[in-house]
Amino acid sequence: MELEKKKPNQKGHSNDNSVEVKVEGRTAAKPTEEAGAGEKKGPDPLEKLQAQLEEKTREAAEYFDKWLRLRAEMENFKKRMEREKAEYLKFGNESLLKALLPILDNLERAIDHGKNAGNHSPLLEGVEMIRKEFAGLLERFGVKPVPTEGEAFDPEKHEAISQEESELEANRVVSAVQNGYFYHDRLLRPAKVVVSRGKPGEKKEPPE
């Protein structure tokens, strides 16, 4: 390495501060860092996009699951409303029809009383016709009598009033004190009945 003074300029003045350092015939420059060396790398755009895609996929799955649940709830609600509507249309007259039963009871009592008294007047025949028409009207609305005489006693549709010996086997219905009725497939009123104890001498068993 050698030091070399610059030649004086044309005016004869020299610049003592202008000294160049040469190394092996080349001017040494101050080393510089490589472009970008030491800089921190940011997140990979592709990885960032993949993470966003996964997040949105999870959100979409959650929203879809909520939609399925809501749809199922709406379907169940719709079916329940349809059942309630059908049941209302089917049994909507229950209270009214139940309130009409005592009228039919009174007509039947009047007829039974007249027959027991040996009364066969046209008036009694007229009452019988009214009873038949009234019972037919109720039947058109789905009201039917509960089977009684000779049937096995069933606490689901029979109400035992008393027991007596009869030619029927034990726990059979001997007679009805008050008729019972179904309204479609629903019990509107149980029948009040007399239950057989069985034939005389048979072992007595109370109705269940």
Which labels suit this protein?
single chain, 208 residues, alpha+beta, Nucleotide Exchange Factor Grpe, Chain A, domain 2, 3 domains, three-stranded antiparallel beta sheet, 3 helices, 9 strands, 43% helix, elongated
Write up what this structure looks like.
- There is one protein chain.
- The chain has 208 residues and is α+β, with helices and mostly antiparallel strands.
- The chain has three domains: 48-91; 93-141; 144-208, Nucleotide Exchange Factor Grpe, Chain A, domain 2.
- It is 43% helix and 21% strand.
- The chain has helices at residues 45-91, 94-116, 122-140; strands spanning 2-5, 19-23, 26-27, 143-145, 158-165, 173-178, 181-183, 186-189, 191-198.
- Strands 1-2-3 form a three-stranded antiparallel β-sheet, with no helix packed on it. It has a three-stranded antiparallel β-sheet with strand order 4-7-8.
- Helix 2 (94-116) packs antiparallel against helix 3 (122-140).
- The N and C termini lie far apart (129 Å).
- The mean pLDDT is 82.
Helices and strands in order, then pairings?
Layout: E1 2-5, E2 19-23, E3 26-27, H1 45-91, H2 94-116, H3 122-140, E4 143-145, E5 158-165, E6 173-178, E7 181-183, E8 186-189, E9 191-198
Parallel strand pairs: 5-9
Antiparallel strand pairs: 1-2, 2-3, 4-7, 6-9, 7-8
Helix pairs in contact: 2-3
